[in-house]
Design a protein that fits this description.
- The chain is mainly alpha-helical and 75 residues long.
- The protein has a domain of 30 residues.
- Helix content is 77%, strand content 0%.
- The chain contains 3 helices and no strands.
- The two termini are 27 Å apart.
């Protein structure tokens, strides 16, 4: 598996983890005042999602830039 496929797979699993932590956060808030670690638990997956998402967003532009084609050139 190459690097780009690994990042995509990691991003998918992070999104599942993030969703589960947000659901757990809402459930804990429904039971009363949740501890701080429950409230802040979605932040780590969220920041990792941001970095992997930005990487995947920039990847097509970086490939085009490295190939030497102009940015506005259509295929």
């Amino acid at each position: 598996m190459n690097w780009n496929m690994w990042v995509r797979q990691f991003h998918r699993w992070l999104s599942i983890l993030f969703t589960m932590t947000v659901i757990a956060n809402f459930l804990a808030m429904g039971l009363g005042e949740p501890p701080a670690w429950v409230v802040y638990s979605p932040l780590l997956p969220l920041f990792l999602l941001m970095f992997t998402g930005l990487y995947m967003f920039v990847l097509p532009y970086a490939i085009r830039w490295r190939s030497g084609r102009p940015a506005g050139a259509m295929e």
